[in-house]
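Page 42, continued from yesterday. The earlier attempt failed because a stray header line got pasted into the input along with the sequence. Redoing it now with the clean sequence only.
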Amino acid sequence: MTEFWTLSYPVPGTPRRSARRAEAQGWDGLLFTDSQNFNGDCYAALALAAAVTERIKLGTGVTNPTTRNPAVTASAIATIQVESKGRAVLGIGRGDSSLGNLGLEPAPVAQLERYVQQVQAYLRGEEVVQNGHSAPIRWIAAGDVAKVPIDVAATGPRVTELAGRLADMVTFAVGADAERLRAGAQRARRAREEAGGDADSLRVGAYLNIAAHPDPAIARRAVIGGVGSLAHFSGMSGRALDQLGSDDREVVASLTRSYDLARHGDSTGSHLEHIDEAFLDRFAIVGTAEQCVDRLGTLLETVELDRIVVLSGSRGVDSSVLAEVSAVIHEEVLPRVRGLG
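This time it went through. Structure tokens are written below.
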């Protein structure tokens, strides 16, 4: 059965409220973004969330290989695993806004691969050698800490294959394109088999921009900032860009060339001028509750997904509008699509 997760920004003072609301609304999990120049610390937020919830899973959406040493990341997420009584998930990607705000490019794939290998080893309680120095995390190795699963966020083929070989889960950031999702899952599972692993043990998910409202125009406005961010990921790699159809390729390439990092995820970003209604309706799942149910149902019939992370809003949108969209999703859309995947 497909799990449905939500994502929140860990603005100081809000994580407890966000976590309580997510659990009360019936979400299966909650992710906090890791972007230090936009928000507070994701691990502090996860610890607060763990203390006020009992059921939902908790994770990063996503951290990166550059801003924290692998030992620091492993120790932080293992702490959340203990405090939440086994509900932690570690999401890792190449990094975007967290690195861009420091004047850095996304981590090279080779760096991400080493990082995932080292963090996995730490979380299994194994010894890791860093800079020629044995650097085990002794409290994990000595304690009874359940292994935290690692989820790799993927857009292009090389990260997809890396996730297949090394991660417990891969979550695609390619929009609501059933063919790309299906091809990505096949690529990841093939890479796992070629590495000697069990293809069926790899869980597969997707980040999807979803907004439902009686007025489809309001739904589109609510989600457009998030669509810009997610579409931008496909423009960061030539090989990922090549996977798009010609019309979408031009939209994503233009958006990425003019991307305003200061308006990351914001509905006021100037780069959003490249997104027309047709692209938004293809890339995201937007419209009335009925339209979103139909689109999600078709997607889940086409692609087997273990998890969908719902990105339902954007910065810069009136909070009352975001509340309306959120209510339609969790009250009218999700109850009708649960159990379809």
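Notes: The CA atoms of residues 313 and 323 lie 9 Å apart.
Reminder to self: strip header lines before submitting.
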